[in-house]
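Attaching the record inline, Q. Sequence:
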Amino acid sequence: MSFDLSRSTLAPLMASPPLTLLTLAAGTARIGGELDEETRTLMRQQVAAGVLDDLAAADGWPLLRTGLMGEHPSRMLAVLRDCGALARLLPELDALSGQGQITPDGGMIDIGAHQGRVVDLLAAQDAPLPVRVAGLLYNLGKADSPPQHLPVHYKHVERCLPRIEAIVDRFGLAAEVRELALLTARELERVHRAAPMRAASITALLERVDAFGQTARYRQLLLICASDFQAYPGNAGRAYGKALLLEQARTACLSVAVEDVTDGREADPAAATALHEARALAVAAALRSERWADAAA
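Structure, as predicted:
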């Protein structure tokens, strides 16, 4: 469906409520939903005139959700940013535009554009809403990294977490959205750093994300991590090796008989430590980790 408007319908847009503006922006995420330049100019004028000033965030969320669930969510975000609406509704996300991030090969990218590519990749895989939201928010702490540390974003996770909480509260988002977004912010870079020789660290990661009890959420985290990896230049279509590595480690952990190790006392600190060590040995054997090779033999 095309959202190009004729002259006869442009004029009423100037006086329409803010939800009309968000409807137009959300429509651009759909195939054929492009807006013409005259419409986009009017949207800029409306935002500058304060059309969004009295809009309750919760009232605007259903339309933002519609756009996020479209085939190309980044198009909606680009339109919202262009007209100034993103800065009003999601200033934390808008602030990422123009911020630099080092790529794995040493180049530089715009973080705001990168998050758009991530959410489009997730949309292409028909990811549910919590995954798409989490895929947008895990870099929020990089908007104002201390300049003396740039281009490294020192302690960005600590800055990101309260911003996610603020967005969840502002729009009244569901608990599952909050939990996955916070988990992704905390663990995405750790997933990227997973390595076969670090059996204990991999085991601890799997335990933190509850890969054994919250399997669906764990797989959603891996999907976001894979999309982050593939959104970097040169990585499109490449397999994400860390997902395979963690799946091998998780399978090894599941081979450990929990009852035999803990005697039914998983909450006991000593039993939890014993279970962690048994799992780490199993992971080391499965991944042939040199650090644990002697103990696992």
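The beta strands are 100-102, 108-110. The chain is about 65% helix and 0% strand.

More tomorrow.
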